[in-house]
Amino acid sequence: MSFPVRKSVFVGIAGMSLIGTVAGCAPSAQAPAAQSAPSSSAPAAGTSSSAASGYKDGTYSADGNYVSPNGTETVGVELTLSGGTVSGVNITQHPSNPNTRKFQGEFAGGIAAQIVGKNLDELNVSKIAGSSLTSGGFNQAVEKIKSEAQ
User: Fold this and answer.
1) pLDDT at 13
2) pLDDT tens digit string along 32-51?
3) Element housing 128 (H / E)
């Protein structure tokens, strides 16, 4: 009779460990942000807040590359800036295979919550929604956008 009790305790402990592990991997709770951005391609005239940040307000686009197990991949990034702060983001996926499509899609679905409202100089993402490699291409594109927005 003690065997079923030990088995139940073991299963309960294993289940609690799994829940703790999954909870530790969950993204931090943040208010969801809009993912779409205005589609103007030319930067708008700077305001006093953008002059202080060093970046011109507007919408900027760049592609970034990263290496995956399937080879070199590209991700498109469009950021809208207002006063040096990210006010919108769009990700253009350029998948070369189904795995890349999956990871870039997950990245695109989670990036806005992580960067909208942050200063452009503070952006340096490492892993979004389970996609760690796509962030390398994103960060590369952000560096190009910084240069373009000055």
Assistant:
1) 52
2) 333 333 333 444 333 334 45
3) none
Give residue 53's pLDDT: 72
| Rounded Cα–Cα distance for residues 84 and 118 (Å) | 9
Per-residue model confidence (pLDDT) at position 130: 86
Vertex 89: Cα angle to 86 and 94 (nearest 5): 140
Among candidate residues 60, 143, 66, 150, the one with its CA nearest the CA of residue 104: 66
Written as six digits, the tokens of 63 are 């592609």
Q: How many CB atoms lie within 10 A of CB 145?
A: 23
Which residues are 60's β-sheet partners? 79
Tokens matching residue 16: 């609690």
Q: Which residues of the chain have pLDDT under 70?
A: 1-52
Predicted pLDDT at 4? 54
CA end-to-end span of the chain, whole Å? Answer: 74
DSSP 17-63: HHHHHHHHHSPPP------------SPPPP-HHHHHHTS-SEEEEEE
In the Cβ-directed half-sphere of 21, how many Cα atoms lie within 13 Å?
A: 6
